[in-house]
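Journal club side-thread
Mid-discussion, someone asked how the predicted structure for our own chain would compare to the paper's figures. Pasting it here so we can look after the session.
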Amino acid sequence: MQVEEYNLIKREVLTLTGIDLNFYKDAQMQRRLNTFLLRSKHDSWQNYFRAIRTDSAELRKLKDYLTINVSSFFRDTEKYKTLKEKVLPELLDGHPRLRVWSAGCSRGQEPYSIAMLLAELTGDFRRHYILATDLDRSALDIAQAGGPYTDDDVAHVAPAFRQQYFLTRDGKHWVSNDLKRRITFRQQNLLADRFETNFDLIICRNVVIYFTAPVKDKLYQDFYRALRPGGVLFVGGTEIVPKATTLGFRPAGISFYRRNGKI
C-alpha cells in the first residue's frame, strides 16, 4: 500500500467512523485493510468510500472490522486461576466492594467472567461496581443483551457457572438477567475519552498491542492514574508493560502489574 493511498484511507476512516488509524501500527493495519477491501468486492478505496458514504449498514461493517473483537469467557484459564486464588483475594482484603473496569470488553465475555468469580468469592449478595467499555457499538449491543454466545465462547466456563448463570436456546448461550444487572456497559474511546478513577482492578487484555509505542505509553500512564494505590492492571498473556517500574508499577505475577502504594 502506497503512503498516499494510506493517508487517504486514514482521512476517510476518521471522517466516516471517528477512528484515528494514526494511533495503530501501520503494517498491521494495512494488512487488515487490504483484506477488507478484497472482501468488499470494490476495486479501489475511492470507489469503496464513494459507495458507503451514505450507507449506515456498510459504515457499521467497516467500524466493526476495525475494532478487533476476539474474546471468550475465562480466556487464558491459568491467568483466571491466578486472579481467583491470589489477585482478587488480596484486593478484597480491606476493600469488600471492588471497583473493576474491563477496558475493551468486546462482547462482554470478560466482565461477565469477572462478575462470576466475584460472586463465588464474596457471595451473590455483595454487589461490586463492574464497568465494561468498548468502542464497538455492535459488540456492546451483544454484551448488554447477554448474548448470543457460541459453544466456543463458553468452552472454559465451569459447569456450576453454566448451570447458575446461562440459558441455552437453539444452540446459543445467553447469560442470566441477574448477571447482566451486575455490569455497567458504556461506549468509550480509550484514546479520546476521560477515564474514571479509583479502580481496584483494570483489565485491558489484547487491546493495547494494536497501538503504536507512544500511544501504548500514554495508555499505560492513564491506566496507572485510574487505579487506586495497590490496584492491579491485568494485561494479555503475551503483553509486557514497557517501563513498568518507571511508571510506578511492580510485577504481581505474569500479566499482572500492581500500582505502588498500600494495598
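Post-session note: The chain has a mean pLDDT of 90.
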